[in-house]
Amino acid sequence: MENDTTTTKNIWNFKETEKLVSASNLTVRSVLDKLTSCLDTADTRSVIPLGHGDPSVFPCFRTTPIAEDAIIDAVRSAKFNCYSPTVGIFPARRAVAEYLSQDLPYKLSPDDIYLTSGCVQAIEVLLSALARPNANILLPTPGFPFYEARAAFTQIEMRHFNLLPEKDWEVDLNEVEFLADENTVAMVIINPGNPCGNVYTDQHLKKVAETARKLGILVISDEVYAHLTFGSKPFVPMGVFGSITPVITLGSISKKWVVPGWRLGWLVTNDPNGILKEHGVIDSIIGYLNISSDPATFIQGAIPQILEKTKDDFFSKIVDMLREYADICYDKIKDIPCITCPSKPQGSMFVMVQLNLNLLEDIEDDLDFCAKLAKEESLIILPGVVVGLKNWLRITFACEPSYLEDGFQRLNSFYKRHAKKQ
Ligand SMILES: *Cc1c(COP(=O)(O)O)cnc(C)c1O
């Protein structure tokens, strides 16, 4: 055991709790809270939040009235004041099955759908259902730190494989093969990607499936940004390859409908060969759902209307905005010498840029950079260390464009003030 310094006798049995605390301290939310506490209250300018992925605060990202009406109708109907079955109410499961089946070569059944309180609860449920002594899971670097925190709390060993910036952040599949052993239960991909803004081609996804098949593991595909793509590559759901290896897809309405506060997500089994059922994974998922809380019933009640009635023009407006703002962001990055972007984002709401500390005078690392940036410029950006890449930054472009312009101007003056003198 690392750090085992039991020289003084400890009568308490709370061993290892410290590790858990540190896992939950490096989540996006906790670090953004810390950066917010660095803000200078004497600065009268407004704070520019390019750190998190919740554009719902900006008027241009307001959700569609169709979704708002669906919630009101669900409440007024008085049909959804009851407890929900632990797997979710049938009409909502059926609606999600039909919605997701549009992109698949086979049809999902309502029984393949489990409704959760947002995508994060789907992650919690799945990692808890997969946990067993000695199990390990393969996670991407950079990634979404909630997986790390959840794995730590459920005591699943994590092994990290790299995403390759020079290959548009594709999975290093050689490394995946190298890391896996007979105790590996699953690998995680996030597509479209957070934090990289990558979108995977169907050829790459097929290779991921074939590698997983060879290793005898499940692919967990986080598709919370499904269809939020604005480059040349279309979104392809991993479930397309569910007959090669079992796939569990995680998603929600949080990002696509810009309503993260509504807390409605799903866990979906894409497993036409029934491998997950045969090996008890389904029973384990249902078992865990039986002892967890459910998404509010009236939100579930609104789901059929939300999924079936939202018009395409709502999504195309969101995607057009994201494309435009990603372009602005990508251009502005080129004007600031100390950051470089290896791969232009094609989906989600984020871009990763590398920080060149050699060009800066008094900046220790990415955390120090972001803390000083918050203090001096009232600009919040996420340090890369939070998503697994030290001395990188994750920038969100899903915000009001005037904020982006202003944010990059402040970033530029920050750079000039801290640049090494030649
Ligand atoms: C935002 C996000 C989630 C969480 O989604 P919710 O539906 O709000 O719980 C999960 N995974 C990734 C990659 C995300 O960016």
Automatic annotation (TrEMBL):
Q: Does the keyword Oxidoreductase apply?
A: no
An example GO BP is:
L-tyrosine catabolic process
* Pfam families xref list: Aminotran_1_2 (PF00155)
* Modification sites for N6-(pyridoxal phosphate)lysine: 255
A Gene Ontology MF term for this entry?
L-tyrosine-2-oxoglutarate transaminase activity
* Record key words, sorted: Pyridoxal phosphate
Q: Which cofactor is essential here?
A: pyridoxal 5'-phosphate
Q: Which residues form the Aminotransferase class I/classII large domain?
A: 47-409
The UniProt entry's sequence similarity note says:
Belongs to the class-I pyridoxal-phosphate-dependent aminotransferase family.
The protein depicted here goes by the name Aminotransferase class I/classII large domain-containing protein
Q: Which species? A: Solanum verrucosum
Lineage of the source organism?
Answer: Eukaryota, Viridiplantae, Streptophyta, Embryophyta, Tracheophyta
